[in-house]
Amino acid sequence: MTDLPDPIDQAAYYYDVNLKRLIAWFIDAVAITFITFLISLFTLGIGFLFFAGIWLIVGFFYRFLGLTIHSSTMGMRITGIEFRQRHDRPFDGLYALLHTAGTMIAYATSLQIVSVILMLITSRKQGLVDLILATVVVNRAARRASN
Prior knowledge:
Elements: H1 17-42, H2 51-70, H3 74-79, E1 81-84, H4 93-108, H5 111-121, H6 128-133, E2 136-139, H7 140-146
Antiparallel strand pairs: 1-2
Helix pairs in contact: 1-2, 2-4, 4-5
């Protein structure tokens, strides 16, 4: 993975990434819940009966579209981080789909615990899905400053 930013020579890329990911996760969870609430209201309340299922569907598309268009979710944009794939390229539709599906599987299983531990101990702050896809989350400002 030498084509990803080096955690020693380019430490600014990874500074506070884990904290920013956590904050972004909370922002995104609130946004997804709000969108799901609005959908439930627009269905004249019927959506509240299926709130959890709608929440999962909204969450999938919210994340997939954000990663496809911006290589980050709204929460990630607010906290100034973004995903990068090999050769410092932003996510495309395939990477967005694979990362979103992998993340949803990790959330649904105990693999998310493994992912969080990996984020804490790996030099590039990569979770399980990040390691599998060879992707990283970096500080947007550090990446732009180096260009």
